[in-house]
């Protein structure tokens, strides 16, 4: 009975996503917000950080925004942020996200 019920009813599938964090209050605060499922608030911070003159910080902030978009189901926007991240710097994480998103 239990097997049949689980086959017929919707089930949650757990997935993990990596986020980049650097030293600094903004990075830490945004990461905590994401962990608390406050993705929109976290993404606001990462969008500001994506404008950094430091290409590494900019790329990873954009990657984090892309992950947030993916988690929230906005795949089109996730693809755009992934492309922006890769334009700033080619990172292993963004390349993996690009593949997962089918870019």
UniProtKB/TrEMBL annotation:
From the Swiss-Prot or TrEMBL record, give the protein name: Uncharacterized protein
**Organism field:** Candidatus Egerieousia excrementavium
Q: What is the lineage of its organism?
A: Bacteria, Pseudomonadati, Bacteroidota, Bacteroidia, Bacteroidales
């Amino acid at each position: 009975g239990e097997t049949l019920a689980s086959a017929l009813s919707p089930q949650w599938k757990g997935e993990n996503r990596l986020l980049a964090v650097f030293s600094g209050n903004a990075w830490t605060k945004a990461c905590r917000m994401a962990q608390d499922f406050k993705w929109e608030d976290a993404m606001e911070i990462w969008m500001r950080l994506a404008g950094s003159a430091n290409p590494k910080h900019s790329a990873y902030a954009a990657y984090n925004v892309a992950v947030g978009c993916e988690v929230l189901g906005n795949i089109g926007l996730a693809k755009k942020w992934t492309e922006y991240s890769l334009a700033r710097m080619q990172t292993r994480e963004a390349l993996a996200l690009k593949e997962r998103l089918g870019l």
